[in-house]
Amino acid sequence: MSTGSDFFRLDDDKAYPNPAEAASLRIGIVTARWNHAVTEQLTSACIKALQERGVSMINILVHRVPGCYEIPTGCQWLNEYEKVDALVAMGCLIKGETPHFEYISEAVNRGIMDLMLRINKPIVNSVLTVYNLEQALDRLGGAHGHKGIEAAQTALQMLRLKFNLLNTTDLR
User: 3.40.50.300, 3.40.50.970, 3.40.50.620, 3.40.50.960: which CATH number matches 23-165?
Assistant: First the structure.
């Protein structure tokens, strides 16, 4: 099975803000408590990757919500009250025996997308939708890379794109 890195490169330094730019960025992370063994690993790896790219820990704002369904509202509030430059949504939905999985995953994905377009800021969707715990673990540094690290990289690359389009040193 191929990994995400087969399709695109996340290691190109030109795609990221430089350390001086990154130090002033404010990144909000909204993490679901449900399936916390998975979501906490996603969040920890995302924070570490942001710091490795120069984002100051004081500017990484982590807030937790009960479950994935609450992530879009958490993102909206974090954007509204903390004035972040980008957001990362962290969660893990594991399919059960009822259609609940489909309802929640569709609502969360639509909520994140609608909010992102409305606030005109990147919201990286790192809500894993998997059939079992093994698939979730494969996305925590296993066969499918680490989705927490990829989330940080994606947020920073989107801000670099904004910076390039604005052609200014102020990313906000």
Answer: 3.40.50.960
Q: What DSSP string runs through the chain?
A: ---GGGT--S--GGGS--HHHHHT--EEEEEESTTHHHHHHHHHHHHHHHHHTT--GGGEEEEEESSGGGHHHHHHHHHHHH--SEEEEEEEEE--SSTHHHHHHHHHHHHHHHHHHHHTS-EEEEEEEESSHHHHHHTEEETTEEHHHHHHHHHHHHHHHHHHHHTSS---
100 is catalytic: yes
Q: Which of 36, 63, 100, 144 is catalytic?
A: 100
- The whole-chain average pLDDT of the chain stands at 87
Does 146 score more than 90 pLDDT? no
User: Model's pTM, two decimal places?
Assistant: 0.86
Which pLDDT band, with edges at 50, 70 and 90, does 148 fall under?
A: very high
